[in-house]
Amino acid sequence: MCTVSWLVDNNAYHVFFNRDEQRSRSMALSPQQFTINNTETLMPIDPDGNGTWISTNEFGLSLCLLNYYQGIKPQGPLISRGLLVKALSAKKTIQEAHQELLQSTLHDYASFSLLAFGYDVHGQFVQQTWQWSGEQLTQIQLNSPFTSSSVEFEQVSTSRLALANRMPMKNVADLARYHQSHQPDKSHLSACMHRTDAKSVSLSHIHVDQQQSLFHYKGASPCSKKPFVTTELAR
């Protein structure tokens, strides 16, 4: 139950991510800097699994994971998908992340969609998405925005995409308004999601350019007046 959007501006890129979770789930820890395999990274931490759903690193590689509820649930005990994102956050390039995924035992993870944002060897922006169905890993092409939902997925996806088609999505302010929106109403259909059992619990905004990575984080519903906390990582 999440929504992600992105845009490129003069080869800098922005990623916005609404994390939707059960109201009973523990509050995540705000983004902090970690050194993982000699790579400096920024990420929030989910204390229930000790992993993360979104990260960025000193090489300009950013990752975010959404649950793929339409996949097949593997049998047996599962490893938290957040630990996979945490491990991949140390990779320098999308290609390195791809090779690591191919070598991973993904049957230990529930199904997911994993989005990566970064730069190629020529310094040009690249976006790649992998989808793990529970049985097979595939690469898929996506347009912004992209969403997931455990409840009425077709209706939710159609509603959120229709909103993106109606409103401008050309700059950072547009994407921020989209992620804070309650259209068509304050419910499971809106990008800023509200249900009796779950809601959008945080809004992340990653901004990466040739000099730095900035992680702006609001640890509350995107529509709340709680200010963003910004963490900076030099590239």
Structure keywords:
Penicillin V Acylase, Chain A; alpha+beta; six-stranded antiparallel β-sheet; 13 strands
Give the domain tally.
1
Poorly predicted regions: none
**CATH fold annotation:** Penicillin V Acylase, Chain A
Radius of gyration, in Å, reads 16 Å
Helical proportion, percent range: 10-25%
CATH superfamily: Penicillin V Acylase, Chain A
Spatial order of the strands forming the largest sheet: 3-4-5-6-7-8-9
Structural class: alpha+beta
- Quick one: CATH class? Alpha Beta
In CATH, the architecture is 4-Layer Sandwich
Q: Beta fraction of the residues?
A: 35-45%
Oligomer: single chain
Kindly describe this structure:
The chain is of the alpha+beta class. The chain has a single domain (2-144, 198-234), classed as Penicillin V Acylase, Chain A, CATH 3.60.60. Helix content is 17%, strand content 39%. The chain contains 4 helices and 13 strands. The protein has helices at 81-88, 94-103, 153-166, 172-179; strands spanning 2-9, 12-22, 29-36, 39-45, 54-57, 62-67, 112-119, 125-132, 137-140, 146-148, 198-208, 212-218, 229-234. The strands form 2 sheets. It has a 7-stranded antiparallel β-sheet, with helices on one face. The chain has a 6-stranded antiparallel β-sheet with strand order 10-1-2-11-12-13, with helices on one face. A hairpin with a 2-residue loop joins strand 3 and strand 4 (39-45). The radius of gyration is 16 Å and the shape is globular. The relative contact order is 0.21. The mean pLDDT is 95.
